Amino acid sequence: xxxxxxxxxxxxxxxxxxxxxxxxxxxxxxxxxxxxxxxxxxxxxxxxxxxxxxxxxxxxxxxxxxxxxxxxxxxxxxxxxxxxxxxxxxxxxxxxxxxxxxxxxxxxxxxxxxxxxxxxxxxxxxxxxxxxxxxxxxxxxxxxxxxxxxxxxxxxxxxxxxxxxxxxxxxxxxxxxxxxxxxxxxxxxxxxxxxxxxxxxxxxxxxxxxxxxxxxxxxxxxxxxxxxxxxxxxxxxxxxxxxxxxxxxxxxxxxxxxxxxxxxxxxxxxxxxxxxxxxxxxxxxxxxxxxxxxxxxxxxxxxxxxxxxxxxxxxxxxxxxxxxxxxxxxxxxxxxxxxxxxxxxxxxxxxxxxxxxxxxxxxxxxxxxxxxxxxxxxxxxxxxxxxxxxxxxxxxxxxxxxxxxxxxxxxxxxxxxxxxxxxxxxxxxxxxxx
Length: 434
Ligand SMILES: [Zn+2]
Known about the structure:
By secondary structure, the protein is of the alpha/beta class. It has 13 helices and 18 strands. The site of zinc ion (ZN) has 4 residues, from loops.
């Protein structure tokens, strides 16, 4: 470890209590996606106080602090701000019913902790390039009703997720490499899990099934039963399961928002929300087309109709092996770690996937918590591992990317093959919404 690496770690340790208090404060004030106003103000206050150039109100609550004194590659450290709907969690906020049961508060603590190390004057002078600290809104799924409000009243063009909207408005235009972290999302016993396992993406839709009301006992033959259409469609989706390839990791989730009003009348309206996950964009398209045929076919068979509103999903996360600098940092910190392998797979989805289609995203996850992710029993049990260790990892990794005239960052950029640039990304999303 060189002298400046040691200095950064000492700085983070010297501010340990401040970082832990920061995490505890965010944990105690959970806010839902796109509405993280208090969280954003707290992050902005911190970034401003350490002398960064702060940009706020991006996609409503996004806050980015930039250190941009030099030319060269930009490394953006990303921290997610939103809490997850989990009413049973003891910290669930009254009213919004959300809690930090996905550990995003730990990401923010790690991000500000890394800033304490990286913004040291000597450390800055040793790096070529720029560093941004970006607190981003809305990683968790945003449902159809909320999306409508965001689009119509809040001017959010891609209300499906925070990162996607930030890409759309150009808030990632300056970023060359993103550095991300999260609590472990796949079972890992070690303190750190290095690299990005492949991860499902998804598409979603809101379905409004129209039937025809009639007296359920006197003249059911005059009606068209919307619940029957929904039931048949779901049966078909079940039978279509054998056409899903194992390697596509398809999952279909269905939710009935509205399913008839009174038992004495043939139900004429069903509202459903559907989500289709798969490992690749092609896999998502294939499974979604089958789902659509099942609903359209069922509506046709019963003589009803089916209205579909396509909702933007998340792209799959592209696999990225542990970069050697992540491994080097973990070794220097003397903690237990495991590197991602190509066989590892995360069936869940994150909008980080979208970013992996445009930029190199260096990622690691960390432990220090107990209970189930998104569950009522999720809690941080070890602040060292959950707050300070990731802060140190982010600081060391960023420094290693940008030191020595940013040799490592330049190499990563040369090797990276994007799937989309910003414009083709926006086009792709817009086409999936037709
Ligand atoms: Zn999460």
